[in-house]
Amino acid sequence: MPDAEGHPAVDEIELVSVLAALADPLRLEVVQKLMTETDGAERHCTSFGLPVSKSTRSHHFKVLREAGLIKQVDRGNSRMAQLRRSDIESRFPGLLDAVATAPD
Predict the structure, then answer these.
(1) What φ, ψ does residue 80 adopt, rounded to 5°?
(2) Cys staple from 70: which of 11, 64, 66, 93, with CB 3.0 to 4.6 Å?
(3) pLDDT digits over 22-35, tens only?
């Protein structure tokens, strides 16, 4: 069962949900950008420069969170996003390597 913030446990992360989340070019871009950061790094959700409204941006991050790809943490009055790199790698070995090299 997902935690109070909507993050699924590692064993609840489903491949279909992950692939559906990554099928959107903007969400794929977010994950690829997070992959360039050091493990455990957090980025403000507005720092990705997505060309969408605030509500659409929130929707994209919700899909990534509910799929188990990212963890979102409240920091004061903002939300930070962190890639769940080790969780995804343990659940689906090699998936993030394929995502990193996906063509534009």
Answers:
(1) -110, 150
(2) 64
(3) 999 999 999 999 99
